[in-house]
Each structure stands twice: as structure tokens, then as C-alpha cells.
Design a protein that fits this description.
Length: about 325
Amino acid sequence: QKRVLSGVQPTGNLHIGNYLGAIRNWVETQADYENFFCVVDLHAITVPHDPKSLASNTRDIAALYIACGIDPRISTIFVQSHVSAHAELTWLLNCITPLNWLERMIQFKEKAIKQGENVGVGLLDYPVLMAADILLYQADLVPVGEDQKQHLELTRDIAGRFNDQFQSVLKVPEPLIRKEGARVMSLTDGTKKMSKSDPSEMSRIHLLDRPDEIAKKIKKCKTDAIRELAFDDSERPEANNLLGLYCIFANKTKEEVQAEATTWRGWGDFKNVLTDAAIAHLQPIQTKYDEVVKESGYLDRILKEGREKASATAFKTLNAVKDAMGYLPPL
Ligand code: TYM
């Protein structure tokens, strides 16, 4: 059986980009694979963070995985920092990764500009930690959004380099990037990706936004002056993005939506149907989330079991890596 690994950072609220680009796809294929889904809390401290909210954010993300349909009986859900092998393999991989591979990373360059003088070493090292996450589990497939493609290529390069320099210990993984939802754009600027770090809350719909907030955000979102709505016009990124979201939320094909669009009298009508579809799609996730956080001890149990299962696999790989590098085993 093929193995899948993926993760989300516990920074801020999850938005529909994280859901449509990543988590929804994990859910869809979870029965076909052996799955590891991680809350990547070590990644969350690569930019300044608030110690008061790290633990609760971590729990929230794990609860949302379950709320979105990850079934803990099929998939292993765990917290990255609970399995120390992640940090340890990162160090070993650091020592075989050329610095210029990391300096080339687009996300590093974008985030580094925002941090100015305060760019930490951790931000540069972020993709090596991500490679360690994936390689520890010998994952075949890594389902992510489009923005993670470059990090996946780096992971493949690091695995290849390790295997060449030492022994063939690490599985070289494939990215799994679904076309629909791979790049959800901001509601306030259709040329920018929807992002947790955008200062404006109006730019994104959170998975836990209440119906009135969803309605407000869609009502105010950026549009253009053309009445007819159509896909694939590069001059009209907002139309393309919102129609794409409607396809997914309403579970309709592009052709169906294009036909339906002829019945709308402009953006106003479309925004109403989009709002209804988004609310209807997110509602069961929100109900399930409330249940998961209410059931005392449930999430703790899942994360404890997850840590045990993840550790068994991760330390097996870590030991093989150390062996290949020639380390003296603990006596
Ligand atoms: P994070 O938390 O930034 O993003 C989590 C997932 O959401 C996807 N995503 C999007 N997809 C579509 N449209 C968007 N606007 C959008 N914004 C975010 C991301 O592609 C990602 O799949 N580096 C990873 C976390 C990570 C990881 C890993 C992933 C750490 N280790 C190992 C896979 C395997 C990240 O971007 O997290």
C-alpha cells in the first residue's frame, strides 16, 4: 500500500485555500493509502510566534483535520514536535544540503523580505525540516497546494543526494497536486494567493467562519465591471477564482457552471449562489468540529495514539539513516 504524508502549520485560522488545496484531497484518497497527517508545530516558529497560543492552535488544527473528514481509524494524526526524530533528521539532512539550494526557495525569499533584519536561520531551514517530515515516513505521495511544489522538488533532491552519498535508504516522494483548488486566490485581489498571513481578514474565508461572516466577505469581495461571468480570462482573475470555488462548493463541473452562469444577471446573483454553496459546504465541518472539541479526552487520545504510531515508523528510518552515515549506535 502506498504511503501518504502531509501537514499544515498551526499558525492562525485555517482558510478554504488550505482546505481545498490540501485537506480535502487527503480525505478523498485516505481509504486508498496508508496516511500520516501531521500538525507541523516546529514549522510554526520559523516566524515570530506567540507562546500563549501555540498549544491551542495545534489542537485546533488536529480537531479540524477530523472535522474535515480525516478518520483517525484509517489515518494517523500526530503533532510534529511530539516525534523528536523530525528535528534530529533535519540536522542530519542540513549537513548534506547545499546552502544555495535553500537560498533559491521562493517562499523563503518572500517571507525573508517581510522579516527584514530579523530573518532567523529557521526560516531558511524550513524546507529541510519539511523534507525530514516526508522522508522519515518513506512517503510515496505528498498531497499539497501548488505553492509547495518547489519544496517538494527540494525534498526529492535531498533524498537523491543522500541516497547517492551514502546508501539508498530514502524513498523519493511524488507531489500530489490536484488541479481544482490547488491555488485559491485572495478575495480582495485575484492575483494574490489566499494566505493566513494577509493582514486583511476580508481576503480569506476561514473554515470556522459563521454564515454571516461568509456572506459579508463574499458580498464585499473584489469583482470587475463585466456583467457576464466566464472562466479562464487572464484579464479577470477574480471571476476565474470565484467560479472555480463555486464548482467545488456546489460540486458542479465547469461546463455545468458555465451553463448556469447564463441565467445570472451579473455578479449580484452569482454572489448569492456562491454564498449559499460555501455555507452549505462548510456547515457540516463546523458541526463536527464543535463535537470533536466538546468530547473531553477524545483529541488527546487520538494524538497520543498518533504519536506512538508515527514514532514507530519515524525512528526506524532515522536509525537507518544514522546507520548509513556511519554513526556509532547507542551503547
Ligand atoms: P501551510 O500551513 O502554509 O499550508 C498548508 C497547505 O495548504 C496549502 N495552501 C493552499 N492551497 C491552495 N490555495 C491556497 N491559497 C493555499 N494556501 C495554502 C499548502 O500548499 C499546503 O498544502 N510547508 C507546508 C507545511 C508542511 C508540509 C510538510 C506539507 C510542513 N511539512 C510535509 C507536506 C508535507 C505548508 O505550506 O503549510
